Amino acid sequence: MALRRKTKWRYDPRPYLLQAATVTNIGNVRGRNEDRAFVEAGCFGVSDGMGGVGGGNVAAEKASSRFVRSIREGCSPMTAINDAHREVISVAQSPDGVSGMGATLCAGVFGIREQTPSMALINVGDSRAYLARSGEGLRLLTRDQRWVQAQVDAGVITPEAARHHPNRNILTSVVGGLNAYDPSIEFIEPRPGDQYIFCTDGITDELSDEALEEFVQTAANFEQLAHDLVNTVLEGAARDNATIVVVSVLDSPRPLP
Q1: Which alpha helices (DSSP H) does the chain contain, by range?
Q2: CA–CA separation, 169 and 179 (whole Å)
Q3: pTM above 0.85, yes or no
Q4: Which of 27, 23, 51, 52 is nearest to 36 (CA)?
Q5: Which of 3, 102, 130, 154 is most buried when burial is the number of CB atoms within 10 A of its CB?
Q6: Which of 5, 1, 60, 2 is nearest to 185 (CA)?
Q7: Counts of helices then strands in the chain (DSSP H, E)
Q8: End-to-end alpha-carbon separation of the chain, Å?
Q9: What is residue 202's three-state secondary structure?
């Protein structure tokens, strides 16, 4: 797997043969689904809203729709996520907005890097992206932008302690966050057979990476994988909304005409 930063890149889904499945569920506790999933031509991902009644669902919808629209208009991934950020802030500051509303956003956008197929991976917050690649198992591609993750990185607490820490849901980066916004972007060269998994924390807070990998290894196809993961979360506590998008790369990238 090759990851590169600051690379000349353009959105173009034409060389790829992709299929995707998405499942979202309100969970067993929440009264509203504040997650959003998007599956567009070569643009896939999830967004998880926050901000209380009338805030979180709007923030997730505005963030995801603005991001996708900017990508389709030919903007770079960084410009697109910045557009989404400004959109959420604008709505929050409007008369009908909710102060403090914001959203996570984790997306993969398929394109071309100097004639080489390349997926841009954009992340803000604690939704996650994984790669399931033959011979390499399941690999976490994103870093949670959470306070507890910063403590783990600094060696203050262990990863296991972070999973149960009372401050585990405090985000250090949010789409729409006035004082906390630090988007990350990486570039990945897709291969035939790759499966890219985008999911909100309603999945990953309930299932460990080891459990996720077991599902990847046993699922018959990408559609079953999406449904099995959400159903398993629902059989447990399902304390949050649970949303997943699984993207399968079916063939070698095709040359442009």
Answers
A1: 56-72, 77-92, 147-153, 159-164, 201-204, 209-218, 222-235
A2: 17
A3: yes
A4: 23
A5: 102
A6: 5
A7: 7, 13
A8: 27
A9: helix
Q: Which tokens sit at 63? A: 């963030």
The predicted-structure confidence for 184-222, as pLDDT tens digits, reads as follows 999 999 999 999 999 999 999 999 999 999 999 999 999
Local structure of 88: helix, strand or coil: helix
Are 13 and 111 a contacting pair, CB within 8 Å?
yes
Task: Please tell me the predicted confidence (pLDDT) of residue 1.
Answer: 39
Can you tell me the distance from the alpha carbon of 73 to that of 179, in angstroms, rounded to the nearest whole number?
A: 28
Q: Give all strands of the β-sheet with 195-199 in edge-to-edge order.
A: 18-25, 242-249, 195-199, 128-133, 137-140
Contact 27, 239 (CB under 8 A): yes
> What are the CA-CA distances from residue 217 to residues 114, 138, 191, 205, 230 (Å)?
34, 9, 18, 20, 16
* Residue 64 amino acid letter: S
CA distances from 178 to 35, 40, 43, 149, 246 (A): 21, 29, 26, 21, 31
- Whether 138 contacts 128, CB under 8 Å: no
- DSSP label of 198: E
